[in-house]
Design a protein that fits this description.
Layout lengths: L1 H15 L4 H8 L11 H17 L8 H4 L3 E3 L15 H24 L6 H26 L2 E2 L14 E2 L1 H18 L18 H18 L5 H14 L9 E3 L9 H8 L5 E3 L1 H9 L5 H4 L35 E4 L1 H13 L8 H15 L4 H10 L7 H12 L4 H11 L25 H4 L1 H11 L14
Antiparallel strand pairs: 1-5, 2-3, 4-6
Helix pairs in contact: 1-2, 3-5, 3-6, 5-6, 6-7, 6-8, 7-8, 8-9, 8-13, 13-14, 13-16, 14-15, 14-16, 16-17
Protein name: SusD/RagB family nutrient-binding outer membrane lipoprotein
Pfam families: SusD-like_2
Organism: Chryseobacterium lactis
Length: about 475
């Protein structure tokens, strides 16, 4: 269309003999409503939405984190709770979503930002925002798949077959990148006042978020490299981590342009595909957990969960309550409660993180209760009945974190893999030999990048969902 417009204008100028047409042609060819170069703030907003949606979606076609932690049961199609990861190509869909629709947008935003007019301090903050968000996406990818294309990734113009980097080497590099990017932040100046749909340009909060990613990376290293783990965790805490719900990384949906993915699957889809599992219902019932009233409906006067890995009749079981069914509920992807539980775990491991394990455990449970509208009195009763168990701290923290991370699938999966509590049993009709510890590689990689993905699979012990990640040693 641009060429047609240009040719037509040239013809008009020749016919009319208007000498001034020549200098005006280029400007007339621009369409201000459809710019050829997107503003970096638009690309950031897109990346934030895409990453939040892909990480938080309960869709059976995507990440399946809620099924990996056995907190949701299925109704009509139990393939995902039977760990069939082939029929709907979930490994491919999540892989593409994170690389193509998220990382690629961040890469382009960085390039476009360099051409935009900003003061040096504001530009530094905007670049830091993009870098921290990119690190966050990489952290999700490496903890979902293990070894992945990293140093060669996003270089399609020069590298057609990216190699797979060692997952621990990626960890080390991400920690280094976090340290480096924090040094570039100018907290007295704003970042993206438009496009930043999480912290709205507040760089002090981006620093806390960056250190909280570092905290999560560090604690995952505990059983494989305790020295690096301790140093990383303690450095993150000293640098300032998420310390209130106001600091949490939440993508805020407006209910129109951006819609909460849980609402999209539970309400807008007009389908009845999911119920809370009997595993989570029975666990919370046994603990007399007051969060159940906020989270679930009753059937026949009681809370009743669906059988994980089996077909379930929707009407016969408790449902997810309206608490989870709003189109504007934020995706809370790195919550204050999660950070508090990680600190409790770190203290139990002997790290210096500003408190004892029992005090931090109490604070973590208390925060989850507060986040979910439970009164102080009911919280105190719950803690009295479910105190910190110093002789089996992994069970205490593991079970309580798993409950607190309900509907925060990726965070919950990190806790269950690292602490091995609660003990998740492979369902009888499972397609796997155990519960999943990772997502297999995308099937498209075997077509487009065959040699490298096969080498990666061999290196980690087999490209299987049952292969543990390098840090998952117990």
């Amino acid at each position: 269309m641009k060429n047609i417009i240009k040719i037509s204008l040239v013809s008009v100028c020749i016919v009319l003999g208007v000498s001034s047409c020549q200098s005006d042609l280029t400007s007339l060819n621009n369409d201000p409503k459809h710019p050829s170069v997107l503003a970096s703030e638009n690309l950031l907003a897109t990346a934030l939405y895409q990453s939040s949606s892909y990480m938080d979606s309960p869709s059976v076609n995507l990440n399946n984190y809620r099924f990996f932690t056995q907190q949701w049961a299925e109704v009509q199609y139990p393939d995902e709770t039977q760990y069939n990861l082939v029929t709907r190509n979930q490994p491919r869909n999540h892989f593409n979503g994170m690389y193509v629709y998220t990382l690629n947008n961040i890469k382009q935003a960085k390039a476009n930002l360099r051409q935009e007019a900003n003061s040096n301090d504001v530009k530094a903050n905007k670049l830091a925002t993009l870098e921290i968000e990119e690190i966050f996406v990489w952290e999700n990818i490496v903890n979902t798949y293990g070894d992945v294309p990293y140093s060669d990734a996003l270089k399609a113009d020069e590298i057609f077959s990216p190699k797979y980097d060692d997952a621990k080497a990626i960890y080390v590099d991400l920690i280094k990148r976090i340290d480096n990017v924090i040094l570039t932040v100018k907290p007295a100046f704003s970042g993206y006042s438009v496009g930043d749909l999480v912290y709205y340009g507040n760089m002090s909060k981006w620093i806390k978020f960056a250190n909280s990613i570092k905290l999560r990376l560090g604690i995952n290293l505990a059983d494989v490299d305790s020295v690096l783990s301790k140093a990383t965790v303690e450095s993150a805490v000293a640098g300032g981590i998420i310390s209130s719900d106001d600091d949490a990384y939440k993508f805020k949906y407006d209910g129109n342009t951006f819609i909460n993915p849980v609402f999209d699957n539970l309400v807008a889809s007009n389908r009845d595909d999911f119920v809370p599992s009997e595993i989570v219902i029975n666990t919370m019932n046994n603990l007399s957990d007051p969060r159940m009233e906020m989270w679930f409906t009753k059937v026949g006067g009681i809370y009743k969960g669906g059988i994980f890995g089996e077909l379930n009749t929707y009407a016969n079981f408790s449902k997810l309550n309206s608490y989870f069914r709003s189109s504007t509920t934020p995706s809370n992807l790195l919550s204050y409660a999660e950070v508090a539980f990680i600190r409790a775990e770190a203290a139990a491991r002997g790290y210096s993180v500003g408190g004892t394990a029992v005090d931090l455990y109490t604070a973590a449970v208390t925060e989850s209760m507060r986040e979910n509208g439970v009164s102080a009195a009911n919280t105190a009763t719950y803690l009295a009945s479910n105190p910190y168990n110093v002789t089996n701290w992994k069970q205490s923290i593991g079970v309580q974190a798993w409950i607190a991370m309900f509907n925060k699938g990726f965070a919950s999966w990190n806790f269950t893999r690292r602490l091995d509590y609660p003990i998740l049993v492979n369902p009888p009709k499972s397609n796997l030999s155990s519960v999943p510890y990772r997502m297999p590689y995308s099937d498209q990689e075997y077509v487009l990048n065959g040699a490298n993905v096969k080498a990666a699979g061999n290196k980690i012990g087999g490209d299987k969902a049952t292969t543990k990640l390098f840090w998952d040693k117990n």
